[in-house]
Design goal:
The chain contains 17 helices and eleven strands. With about 400 residues, the protein is of the alpha/beta class. A hairpin with a 2-residue loop joins strand 9 and strand 10. It is globular, with a radius of gyration of 22 Å. The strands form three sheets. The chain has a seven-stranded mixed β-sheet, sandwiched between helices. It folds into three domains: about 5-160 and about 230-305, 3-Layer(aba) Sandwich (Rossmann fold), CATH 3.40.50.150; about 165-225, no CATH class; about 315-400, no CATH class. The chain is about 40% helix and about 20% strand. The model has no long low-confidence stretch (mean pLDDT about 95).
């Protein structure tokens, strides 16, 4: 399906704005598609990445997802490869340059539409972030990706969230009225003036979650001048996924989709107990009111309910964006792990005794080995209680995953 207006936009303003030389300083990571994370949710933590593994990044943009996956596969000594697919030649050139700076040779670059995916597959894993909501028919796009997926694989997806984009669509409508007949560059200048002129009571002005327009012109264009986009509620995400014969494994980070972290009243919490996971996620979205995107993992319906890793003696707790000493220090000092969600800080309680467990997580020791090291040193709670609270909090915040012991 041709999308000339969208292609033209990303040729003029590749998104997100990236400087390839920054690859010498840092690796941009995130959800979904972080390798330990996708292994946890799609392959029960048991995927052997030394075996053949093919990933597709559909709508690769300037390369964040493709570079992250390719670098992590390379670091793991994997023979796996990543296929990059995008409409924009300008975006592709930036992504290719980023790969060159990192000396990555495990990415194959293709220019084209998401609807070309079937000719490139099958794939063990597909990343499609920030793309489906720009399609005229998102259901057809997701079905195309599902057709390119291995029966034993899964996908990491991201679409816009409706409540967190409060104020975006009226502003888009105003800019279409003001920018009619102007070049895209001229529309950018008009948009900047309008944003600066918004009254204090305007919903866009009052929404602290919207920052892309401040970071770069490419971010402004993608947020305010896009020719086609829509946003989803949790229930609508579920319907989109189901339309392609897929099932949601988990939203990430899970903590944002659990209402009990935002409610304290025991009676209200009791009344939530009868809700299924999707209904709880929808309730949490309504409660927070500020989720501007939904990131989540999906698998074919035939694999539903059996792909997420679960704790067990032979599983290896694996930390992602925090090291063991910092995690232990936070638990020992505060008795909780926390994350800021807009103006609200979510605090997940963890017994301070769990700090001694956290200190032993080195991404190699099994849970059984950690138990043998510290199980008798916990003073106030048992190992199972401390570990359970630690895992629930750290996994909920995307700080910890599980992988199967390979020894």
């Amino acid at each position: 399906m041709a999308q000339p207006a969208i292609r033209k936009q990303y040729e003029a303003y590749p998104y997100p704005a990236r400087d390839p030389t920054d690859e010498t300083k840092r690796l941009i990571t995130g959800s979904p598609s972080n390798l330990p994370e996708l292994n946890h949710y799609i392959f029960s933590g048991a995927r052997d990445f030394s075996q053949p593994f093919r990933a597709l990044v559909a709508g690769g943009g300037t390369g964040d997802g493709a570079i992250m996956l390719a670098q992590q596969l390379s670091d793991a000594g994997s023979s796996g490869s990543v296929v990059y697919l995008d409409l924009s030649e300008a975006s592709r050139r930036i992504a290719e340059r980023r790969a060159e700076v990192r000396n990555l040779s495990n990415i194959r670059f293709h220019s084209g539409s998401l609807f070309d995916a079937a000719t490139l597959g099958p794939f063990d894993y597909i990343d499609c972030c920030g793309v489906l909501h720009h399609l005229e028919a998102p259901e057809e796009g997701l079905s195309t990706l599902a057709g390119a997926l291995s029966p034993h694989g899964g996908m990491g997806l991201m679409v816009y969230g409706k409540y967190g984009r409060n104020g975006v669509y009226p502003l888009q409508k105003m800019l279409r009225a003001l920018g009619s007949g102007l070049s895209l560059h001229e529309q950018v200048e008009i948009a900047k003036k309008l944003v600066e002129s918004l009254p204090a009571n305007n919903w866009f002005k009052r929404n602290p979650m919207l920052v892309d327009h401040r970071n770069s012109d490419a971010g402004l264009v993608d947020l305010l001048l896009h020719s086609q986009d829509r946003a989803y509620l949790v229930e609508e995400v579920g319907a989109l996924v189901n339309s392609a014969g897929l099932s949601i494994v988990s939203f990430v980070p899970p903590v944002q989709y659990e209402p009990s972290h935002l409610l304290q009243d025991p009676e209200l919490l009791e009344r939530l107990n009868g809700l299924n996971p999707m209904a709880r996620a929808a309730f949490a979205e309504q409660l927070s009111g500020n989720l501007k995107q939904h990131a989540f993992y999906v698998v074919p319906d035939a694999r539903a309910g059996c792909t997420t890793a679960v704790p067990g003696p032979r599983m290896v707790p694996t930390l992602s964006t925090v090291n063991a000493s910092r995690l232990a220090m936070a638990i020992r000092q505060e008795g909780f792990l926390a994350v800021k969600n807009g103006p609200v800080t979510l605090r997940l309680p963890v017994p301070k005794d769990a700090a001694v467990i956290a200190e032993q997580i080195d991404n190699r020791r099994t849970l059984s080995e950690i138990h043998d090291l510290v199980g008798t040193t916990l003073e106030n709670v048992g190992f199972d209680t401390a570990w359970g609270a630690l895992y629930k909090a750290a996994n909920g915040l995307n700080l910890m995953y599980l992988q199967a012991d390979k020894s």
